[in-house]
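Suppose you are handed a protein chain with no further information: no name, no annotation, nothing but its sequence. What can you learn? This example shows the usual starting point.
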Amino acid sequence: MANLYIPWIFLVQTLTLFAKCRGKVPAVIVFGDSSVDSGNNNFIPTIARSNFQPYGRDFPGGQPTGRFCNGRIPSDLISDGLGLKPTIPAYLDPMYNISDFATGVCFASAGTGYDNRTSDVARVIPLWKEVEYYKEYQKKLKAYLGNKKAKNLLSEALYLISIGTNDFLENYYTLPDRQSQFTVKQYENFLINLAADFVKKLYALGARRVSLAGLPPMGCLPLERTTNIMGLHACVEERNKVALEFNRKLKGMVAKLNKQLPGLEAVYVDVYYIFLQIITRPSAFGLEEARVGCCGTGRFEMSFLCNPHNPFTCQTQISTYFGMPSILQRKPIKSSQIMRLKLI
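A reasonable first move is to predict its three-dimensional structure. Written in structure tokens, the prediction is:
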């Protein structure tokens, strides 16, 4: 097995161990942003879509699904790693029904955040609406399985939450409103309180096994490097420090909630250092380029700006790696070593 799989193995094994220690996981229920959106944005009026090539070109069937990736996304791989289905369907996709959602469902929306104003930027699904869809799902599940079976499934399911980067990069650092209200540290605290409230809402609705992913080194994302002209396009360390500080607070919040809420088994998943290793030592993970993406020039293209007709878009066959707007490799690899970061 190629060393390209090491970070994903670490993440999947961590969550699998968490689940196995407490019994079998009957379903994976997903909330968050583009890192775990499996196609919900296809069915709302937003420009934040990825239902066109080259997205999905390495997904089974080679078709774009609305995943902001060339292949499967983290939630898909975790579901597969837990012995459930290999992909998790989007709740708004009319191709699926409650029988499909009974073992896994995705409410995530690319471009959203903990802060409702973040979702307003691209007019995507706010986090509170994801919860409303979840309540609707619960009713359908109870009608399908019966109250007792549905309640057991909901309490034993693994809830994956991956969200937060957009709050900083699309909202706080881009628009003046939140900057006029909060210092960056105050905004971190504001988001942590929103995250805690969100987990409490899920807990009140029956969730008990919850995984919250932290932020990646967002100062190293291609667009951040592109705009860091004075820093010679190096990582923006100030934003990396913010990510670390936010992650520390998120980890503390998870520990606090585990003590406050009886029966809650929440875990914090650190993705920051996994990415940092790839960025600083790309060759150790079978990568040749860790500074730019594979959409167009790799410096700023994402969503509708990412297209297969741009001569700079990579042609190498690829698959999936967990991430936000990506650091992608341009080095040809064997089909047995397929692994790649997300196209956004």
